Amino acid sequence: MIVDVLNMEGKMVSQVELPAAIFEAPINIDLMHQAYTRQMANARLGTHDTKLRGEVAGGGKKPWKQKGTGRARQGSTRAAQWVGGGRIFTPHPRKYTQRMPLKMRRAALRSALSAKAADAGIVIVDDLTLSEPKTRLMAKALNHLVGACSVLLIIPEKSAGYDVVIRSTNNIPDAKALMAGYLNIRDILSFDKVVLPLQALDVLKTTLE
């Protein structure tokens, strides 16, 4: 697949061939769904907790005697049927972690990138740089590159030049800057366009091919 390489003004400066192993891989919807579900599950803290009847304060005294009152027998005012009592069948701390082999996770990323490429959602730029960290400059550049679309910017490495790009992107609601090493299925599917500098494309080649 040959695509245009744009500059920050949105003008074509050259062309590049995207690696078929990454951007023309078979699109496996089930695999992408599994990877997405795993990522969302692993992000859960699992710290929710409710108190059982033995953990609620009070209730040590029997409300009334066992027999002779005509009422149902009760042993504690902290039983589940009482207001202010404990709870049953309610959440307690647990882990939601799901495991997925590395090969499957990478295959899901290739599948998601291929789906984006097939939908013309991959934008290649020669160099993603700004003269100063200004939201206005980044918004103007993104308007040239993708127009009125939500966009994921892939940063090849953590450096002074790309730190300016990250800071300039933080205040744009429909844009996110992400290191290439942290590329994940959720972010790929959440944004309309993926902007890749040529250096970031080289990083993806080393990790996904």
The count of helical stretches stands at 7
**CATH-defined fold name of the largest domain:** Ribosomal Protein L4, Chain: A
**Overall 3D shape:** elongated
Mean pLDDT: 93
N-C termini distance: 15 Å
Instruction: Indicate the radius of gyration in whole angstroms.
Output: 27 Å
Percentage of residues in strands: 5-15%
Structural class: alpha/beta
State the order of secondary-structure elements, H for helix, E for strand. EEHHHEHEHEHEH
SSE diagram, text form:
Blueprint: E1 2-6, E2 12-17, H1 20-23, H2 29-42, H3 102-118, E3 122-125, H4 135-145, E4 151-155, H5 160-169, E5 175-179, H6 185-190, E6 193-197, H7 198-208
Parallel strand pairs: 1-3, 3-6, 4-5, 4-6
Antiparallel strand pairs: 1-2
Helix pairs in contact: 2-3, 4-5
Task: Describe the protein's architecture and organization.
There is one protein chain. This protein has helices at 20-23, 29-42, 102-118, 135-145, 160-169, 185-190, 198-208, and strands at 2-6, 12-17, 122-125, 151-155, 175-179, 193-197. By secondary structure, it is an alpha/beta fold. It folds into two domains: 2-45 and 99-208, Ribosomal Protein L4, Chain: A (3-Layer(aba) Sandwich), CATH 3.40.1370; 50-90, no CATH class. The chain has a six-stranded mixed beta sheet with strand order 2-1-3-6-4-5. A hairpin with a 5-residue loop joins strand 1 and strand 2 (12-17). Helix 2 crosses helix 3 (102-118) and helix 4 (135-145) crosses helix 5.
